Amino acid sequence: MTAPASAGVKASVVPGHPGDATGGDAVAPPVFASLVGQAHAIPIWRAIVADAARARRGEVAPGFTHAWLITGPPGSGRSTAALALAAALTCPAGGCARCPVCEAILTRRDPDVEIMSPVGTTQRVADTRHLIARAASAPVAHPWRLVILEDADRLNDAAANALLRTLEEPTARTLWILCAPSAQDVLATLRSRCRTIALRTPATEAVAELLSGQAAFSQHPPVSAEVAQFAARAAMGHVGRARALALDEGERQRRQAVMRIPEVIGDLGEAMTAAAALISSCTEAAAELGDQAEAAERSAILTAHGATADARPRERTRAQRSASAQLKEVTRRGKDRRRRLLTDRLDRALLELTSFYRDVLVMHLGEPVALVNPEQRPAIERLAAASDLATCQRWLDDLARARWALTTNAAPQLTVEALLVQLSNRG
Ligand SMILES: [Zn+2]
User: For 113-125, how does the pLDDT look when each residue is reduced to its tens digit (9 = 90+)?
Assistant: First the structure.
């Protein structure tokens, strides 16, 4: 089990949702309020904002630096934290979350804040070089230009080295915010140039509170306490996943189909059928998301080339022609993106399966800790009765190996087939 987010934080710190509190020493700037279960970071945000104000006035600011690295497990809010930090550094009030500066940055529309996230499984060195070149130009409206690099762990060595040279000789008015699952995922020389801020896996209770609308900053209709509890537990600390499970019936159904797999793979044939079904549902979902992203990119490019919604056919044709190189690049990146989306979705499915087999292991051990999937207790008990502890441990090893294989270039279909065949072996 994950320790509560407030563990180790002194009692005066407001746990959970600092933005809800008013006054007091330990309140984070409002712009950080949407971070769930990160109370331990409040003093860090406060110190950074205070030092940024000093730096803006040209005073000595020991806590200020030109490069930050925000780490945290997937779904802990790295990107949200990066945007909030960018706003806090730029907003005249230190991150009020209300002014036009905060609003433009939080909605990713500020020209001085550049956000780069690799669409494929790795960040290409050419894209990184372009980014570095753009980052060096002077800010338009703010004291500094900010560059947010999501998934800095996906930089390949060449890209990381190009970035390292930039961080070694920083431009005075450019600030970098890198995000990665952990500091170890980033090249050691690169992370030594950054100040690291570590986010934690949010506690189930904090996520459930967010979903049930008890947090003032929830940006969606609140769901019932029961659904909020289920989604928070099933998402295992991944805030975005919890939100999707709480709000999207389709996501809940897809998860249910995955969680039925352990019961339906009694023999080889059933394992192969289940693998085919899982691959095809993940491929469909990845294609749908990929198509949406690609369509949005195409339309943005065509608009930039003059093909606005009310453009005449001749203007459209002209825009198509002048944008053709960029549109080709969109198609190329689209393939990378679909592959990444597919492996991401498969990985999520395998993580969910892992939670089921972990519950079987918990059952074998006499339930010293709570189940992740209590609603599946009968199925978990049946599988525990039909297996022994060693087999259960082997299943968990198989799952871990398959998830690792997906992060390399292993063929997704073969990986999933081999895994489900292994899991169908109860002996
Ligand atoms: Zn503001």
Answer: 999 887 766 767 7
CA-CA distance, 130 to 140, in Å (whole number)?
18
Question: Is pLDDT above 60 for 9?
Answer: no
238 CA distance to ligand 1 centroid (A)?
27
Closest CA to 278 of 340, 349, 329: 349
Q: Which pLDDT score, from 0 to 100, does residue 386 have?
A: 94
Residue 330: both structure tokens together: 């969109």
Residue spans per domain, the chain: 18-198, 204-247, 268-424
- Helices 204-211 and 239-247 cross at an angle (nearest 10°) of 40
Q: In terms of CATH architecture, what is 18-198?
A: 3-Layer(aba) Sandwich (3.40)
Q: Ligand 1 centroid vs 241 CA: distance in angstroms? A: 28
Q: Which helix (H) or strand (E) holds 234?
A: helix 225-234
**From the CA of 106, how far away is ligand 1's center (Å)?**
10
Q: How far does the centroid of ligand 1 lie from the alpha carbon of residue 43, in Å?
A: 19
Cα 36 versus chain centre, distance: 13
pLDDT at 309: 73
Find the 239 Cα to ligand 1 centroid distance in Å.
Answer: 24
What's the pTM value of the predicted model, to 2 decimals? 0.78
CA of 103 to the centre of ligand 1 (A): 7
